[in-house]
Amino acid sequence: MKKSEKDEYDKTYGIFKYKRPLPSEIESAMGLVGESILFKKLISADYERFYDPIKIPEEGDWLMTHKEYGQTYNEYIQNDCVPVDPNHNVIYIHRFSSNDDLIKDELFQNVIILLEAFFTGMKVYLYDEGSGNYINNNENMLENTNENNIENNNENNNENNNNENNNENNNIENNNNDNNIENNNIQNNDNNENENKQLNESGEKMAINADQLLEKLKLEMPEDAYCLFGIIDNDLYTEALLPNGKRLIKATYGKRSVADRVSIFSLARFDPFFNFNGKIKNLSKEQRYKISLILLKRVCSAITREICYMFGMKNCTFMSCCMNGTNVAEFDNKQIELCPICLRKLITNIRANGEDIKNYRVKKPLIVYNRFVKMRDALENFSGLYENELKWFNARIDFLKTLI
Ligand SMILES: [Zn+2]
Question: 203-262: per-residue pLDDT in tens?
């Protein structure tokens, strides 16, 4: 490396002096030693041509104000991985719906299809308020798309391997954007009578206590759940008692407990028309639809990332990746796909499926290729929202085809 290039990498950014990783650090973070040649190729071949380096942080970006430690593949499997196992391999989504859902059910089904592709090899079930059960409407459709895949991925099994870490409940990022809300701006939700009531008397959506909702979700966790992700249109808040006896109420995007593998997430602040007094009314059907598409894209980015956190994955500091730490302003430019390092973490965890992940080698590497195909197919459902991404997936698929 030339000195001028080296100097570029030595530059630091933000108050915590973030440094961009050297190409050698990126490769070592993938931790591909010992894997089959095909797996290495499918994860990393020509990665510099296909994957963007991490964006140089600018004023207002996440990395300028947040301390990030990064997480290599080896750090992931040694310290942070929350292993999938044959008895806990279903992703459950509980969507709390209301009469004027920000995203209509038929659009939301696309999110489920995307999740099935993103977390390929795992089942995804959506809560059905009518029956009170979790169901998978896409099973037939997914079976059909599987026919086009090169490999059928049904290997796996083995006993449990519980390795839970991260005991704390985390408020979901963007703390710097959280607003402290005066007590009187928020409807108190203390009594049980109000727990499930989502609208106030003037028909506006009430803010809901995120801690209470998270506790509720923990209780409804099905036995075979890998994780349970709750999503709600209402704004969320958390409440803390200060030493002086006063209550501090903070708005939040959501809350997660990695130890319990449960997360609750609010769409309210993702809505471009969000305000503290409820929804702006009288939008035309067309305007509402346009907004729901913007929201849909934001939801896809948020939900995939949140579930990756349940896998024990941390914010990515290596390449441009959907696991990069993000402020709200950066959200719409966020890519939907994982970088090779994060993809390697996800695929290996799903494939190990209860085997000792520290010594696990991916036996059917074509899962990587098949996942790209499924991702491409899933993104095609989003009526033009992912045109650039589709070009990327098609190019990656065409290139990998030549290596198989
Ligand atoms: Zn990454």
Answer: 556 789 999 999 999 999 999 999 999 999 888 999 988 899 888 899 888 999 999 999
> Ligand 1 is a single-atom ion; what residues have CB below 5 A from it?
316, 321, 323, 339, 342
Task: Please compute the mean of the pLDDT values over residues 367-383 and round it to a whole number.
Answer: 95
Contact by Cβ (8 Å): 142, 117:
no
Domain chopping of the chain, boundaries: 3-401
Q: How far apart are CA 376 and CA 397, in angstroms?
A: 9
CA-based nearest residue to 226, from 262, 254, 255: 262
For 63-78, write each residue's pLDDT tens digit.
999 999 999 999 999 9
- In b/e form, how buried is each residue of 334-352, taking b as 16+ CB within 10 angstroms? bbbbbbbbbbbbbbbbbbb
CB 51 within 8 A of CB 100: no
**Ligand 1 centre and the CA of 39: distance in Å?**
17
Reply yes or no on domain 3-401 having CATH 3.40.50.300. no
The tokens describing 251, both together, are: 């708005």
Distance of CA 262 from the midpoint of ligand 1 (Å)? 22
Distance 320 CA to ligand 1 centre (A): 7
Instruction: Tell me, in angstroms, the distance from the centre of ligand 1 to residue 44's CA.
Output: 12
Read off φ and ψ for residue 340, nearest 5 degrees.
-60, -35
Q: What is d(CA 24, CA 47) in angstroms, rounded to the nearest whole number?
A: 13
For residue 135, the cross-strand partners are 126
* Interval between CA 318 and ligand 1 midpoint (Å): 6
Q: Which of 94, 90, 105 is nearest to 139 (CA)?
A: 90
Q: What is the residue type of 150?
A: I
**Do 379 and 53 touch, CB atoms closer than 8 A?**
no
Q: How far is the CA of 119 from the centre of ligand 1 (A)?
A: 15
Q: Closest by alpha carbon to 362, among 112, 144, 73?
A: 73
Strand order in the sheet with 123-128: 133-135, 123-128, 90-96, 225-232, 262-266, 254-257, 169-171
Give me the DSSP letters along 44-101: HTTHHHHSPBPPPP-TTSHHHH-------HHHIIIII----BTTB-EEEEEEE--TT-
